[in-house]
Amino acid sequence: MDFVWVSKNMKFHSKEWQTAPSSLQRLLNPLTFILVFFLLSRAPVDADLWWHLRAGQVMLAQKSILLSDIFSYTRADAPWINAFWLSEILLYWIHSLGGYFALAVFVALLGASTFHIVSRRLTGNPLVSCFIVLLAAVTAAPIWGPRPQILSFLLVALLDFWLARSPRRLWILVPFFALWANLHGGWIWGFLLLAAHIAGLFVQSFFQEEERIPLRRLALHLLGWTVLSALAVGLNPNGLALWGLPFQQINVSLQIQEWLSPDFHRVDFHPLLWMLFLLLLAAPFAKKPLNWPQLVKVLGFAYLTFVAQRNIALFAIAVAPLLSEWINAFIQTLPQKAEHSVSRALNPRLASIINGLLILVLGLTALGNLYLVSQPERVDRNYPVYAVEWIRDNHPEGRLFNSYNWGGYLLWTLPEFPVFIDGRADLYGNDLINQWHDVVNADENAASILDVWDVNMILLEPHWPIVDTLEERGWDITYQDEQAVILIRK
Fold first, then answer.
1. Which domain holds residue 427?
2. Which long-range contacts (CB under 8 A, 24 or more apart) does 409-417 make?
3. How far is Cα 116 from Cα 121, in angstroms, rounded to an integer?
4. Considering Cα of 125, then 127, then 133, then 135, what sign does the dihedral take?
5. Rounded to the nearest 5 degrees, what angle is found at the Cα of 443, between the Cα atoms of 437 and 449?
6. Is 115 exposed, middle or buried (0-12, 13-18, 19+ CB in 10 A)?
7. Is a pLDDT exceeding 60 seen at residue 9?
8. DSSP assignment, residue 419?
């Protein structure tokens, strides 16, 4: 019987649930996929989405890859290490097909696919597997959005899945990382995953004497192909210069929200703690020998997550298999319950129809929710739409100083106005980011910075101190609403 989750031959803790796929698993698999799709449904409102879309639009129009800045006046013609060019073309193409809704479907579908790959790593009680996958998805949800980095999350899940299968064709790593290096700068996460796996194999070899030589041989072979893969990263338009990108971003991005540690006063970061505490509670039941490769990955990505919240999805992907293994080991220590039988079971065909209808209704509900959250008016409420319309209608002259969070949006909606700054932190560097902070906070050098860059117009959120300061110095507020203010130099 499918829809009713007990059957004549089923025990709650039965070993059959941990071996062959059961009727419950056949129902839970699509339901879990749909629920993850729903949990990771997002309106396309990420601040970085817009400059990715604009870059993809320009590259398709020019039929060339952007490797220098054409969007700002502060870094005009400066070399730009564009690690996202393939993703940017993909995102723009998806947007051109179906607008915001198509982008939202892509984001949710990629999330569901990522955690479906994670679910393939999980064995044992299917209800436990479903719970862990959903918890992992909720954990990743705060940083899941319409950006190329979600492609990196998918590739991390694929790589971890592949490594767990004791891979033999290690040469696959070379084209894998060559592709990754043209999609997103998160390929560095792949190398950290490989490093953790190799370290875990060496540690495990000390505890499994009979497997010591095969484990170390696999680790050394994997290390060799990892080195070749590091060279394959250079197979991109930026060459080996791409290797400097992750370290440069760490240097310049410490003032940016996603590079800050998780704020556990926010409820949406609490699932991270739940996963961590569950892992600690289940650890005493872990079977020996420990799964050291996965444990080292969990420890490594936990460290990265507590340093920067942008890594939280990596932690969720890495911890799910180990959490599943340990919780199922705990369940096996519990007393076996008696069989629960039902006297009247649904006809198998009827049960299949009911299950199919349930999946169909939930799937349509998830798509309907996604359609609603991706409506243009829902997206526009997050941006200075009316301020942009004012600029279009009035055509003010001179350079624009803009909000950091709106830089990408202005590239997309006002391409005729080069920006002061946008979300490409690695391009602008510490100096320009600090200048932006000095201006918006009305530091003593704010006026001189605006003069040096010959700024004639400012578009910011009204709460910044510079708004009151410039108004006192004779700048005119030509437009203002609850979301944005425009000041023009007299």
1. 384-488
2. 409/47, 409/50, 409/383, 409/384, 410/50, 410/459, 411/50, 411/51, 411/54, 411/71, 412/50, 412/51, 412/53, 412/54, 413/50, 413/383, 413/388, 414/388, 415/54, 417/391
3. 9
4. negative
5. 70
6. buried
7. no
8. B
Are both 429 and 312 inside the same structural domain?
no
**The one-letter amino acid at 316:** A
Rg for the chain, CA atoms, rounded: 26
Whether 343 is covered by a domain: the verdict is no
276 and 145 housed in the same domain: yes
Reading the block at residue 324, the tokens are 């599943």
Residue-wise pLDDT tens digits, 245-299: 887 765 666 567 788 899 999 999 999 999 999 999 999 998 888 899 999 999 9
Higher pLDDT, 226 or 286: 226
Same domain as 388, residue 323: no
Amino acid residing at 254: L
Q: Indicate the pLDDT class of residue 8, thresholds 50, 70 and 90.
A: very low
pLDDT band at 343 (very low <50, low <70, confident <90, very high): very low
List all residues 6 or more positions away from 129 whose beta carbon is below 8 Å from its beta carbon: 28, 32, 119, 122, 123, 324
Query: Any idea which residue has 């359609």 for tokens?
Result: 371
Place of tokens 């298999």: 321
Q: What is the pLDDT of residue 56?
A: 97
